[in-house]
Design a protein that fits this description.
By secondary structure, the protein is an all-alpha fold. It is built from six helices and no strands. 81% of the residues lie in helices and 0% in strands.
Length: 187
């Protein structure tokens, strides 16, 4: 990985986005842990908000990239899938927690693949190795969540730990971009 940052406006935007995503996820996970994974309206709201925030974050990233020529198919897939999953999680969490866990798992897989592809494409912006790892881990964790849900597990609170791992990757990426941007301007 080169220490240079090819697009400082994109890198600055990604750095801000990654710090925001880190903060949001820490608060969200703390709230989910506080519920103990107990079914109810608050859990349903939490399960809906997370993929909607993800969709909003990816949409913001698309708009901040500023390169209208480059295809953004993987990002748009992530946005659409996250919105659909928010609706699905809202419904599934009122049916059973095992169904909600299954839906979450399928979403982790379908969001992890585009994240991995996007990070590979944005690698010249710097700080993308953690995002590549995060996308790959999402695919694997999503498979585990889906399998658990299909086996009847209702341990939905486990997704908070998964989200925190993703938050750490966002923090590492943001810090890495901060270092690279400072090197570029000679601060």
């Amino acid at each position: 990985m080169s220490a240079s940052v090819s697009s400082s406006p994109l890198s600055s935007a990604l750095r801000r986005l990654y710090f925001v995503r880190f903060g949001f996820t820490v608060v969200w996970a703390a709230l989910l842990f506080a519920t103990g994974g107990a079914a109810g309206p608050f859990l349903t709201v939490l399960l809906i908000v997370y993929p909607l925030f993800d969709a909003g974050s990816v949409f913001w990233q698309i708009r901040s990239e500023g390169d209208g020529r480059r295809a953004k198919v993987s990002e748009w897939i992530n946005v659409v899938v996250s919105v659909v999953v928010a609706i699905g999680l809202g419904w599934a969490s009122t049916v059973s927690l095992s169904l909600a866990l299954t839906v979450w798992g399928v979403w982790a897989i379908s969001a992890g693949l585009p994240q991995l592809i996007t990070a590979i494409r944005n690698r010249r912006s710097g700080g993308q190795v953690p995002q590549m790892l995060s996308g790959g881990i999402s695919v694997l964790a999503g498979g585990a969540f889906a399998a658990q849900g299909l086996q009847g597990s209702g341990m939905i609170v486990g997704v908070a730990g998964y989200a925190l791992v993703g938050a750490v990757f966002f923090l590492v990426s943001a810090v890495r971009l901060t270092v690279l941007l400072r090197k570029k301007v000679g601060v």
